[in-house]
């Protein structure tokens, strides 16, 4: 192995280096892992949760949000009106004929695929058995001819 004599490592350059990495927390003074930060985060989370609950109540339960009359009317038309469920007699079976045909076609395709796969595997097994039988016959024929010629 060749030694590089012209290589010089100066340890003082590492010590005097100015672009040393500091975390953003240290650089900008953001106290991320302090108790105060955790309290502020918990307060912010609870305020966000309260706002979310108020929004859900105002939209889905019909509370007056202090918005204009027109906006309240739109909200009432969209979210608050009670609608009766209408059940049509056409859908009494639960499955439409299109979905039924897709299910039957899918089951048929799976059955066909399975049948073809089983046929292919049985054909391969038969070919292997025939090949093994041929090898055995060849081996036995070689033994019998070798046995007769040696006597």
Q: What is the alpha-carbon Rg in Å?
A: 41 Å
Give the % helix. Answer: 55-70%
Overall structural domain count: 2
In percent terms, what proportion of residues is strand?
Answer: under 5%
Instruction: Give a short account of the largest sheet.
Output: none
Tally of helical runs: 5
Distance between the termini: 69 Å
Write the element-wise H/E pattern from the N-terminal end onward: HHHHH
User: What ranges have pLDDT less than 50 throughout 5 or more consecutive residues?
Assistant: none
Overall body shape: flat
**How many β-strands, per DSSP?**
0
The structure class reads mainly alpha
Write down the overall mean pLDDT: 77
Features:
151 residues, mainly alpha, 2 domains, 5 helices, 0% strand
Task: Briefly say what this structure is.
With 151 residues, the protein is mainly α.
Describe the structure.
With 151 residues, the protein is mostly helical. The chain has helices at 11-15, 24-28, 35-60, 69-80, 97-149. It starts with 10 loop residues before the first helix and ends with a helix. The model has no long low-confidence stretch (mean pLDDT 77).
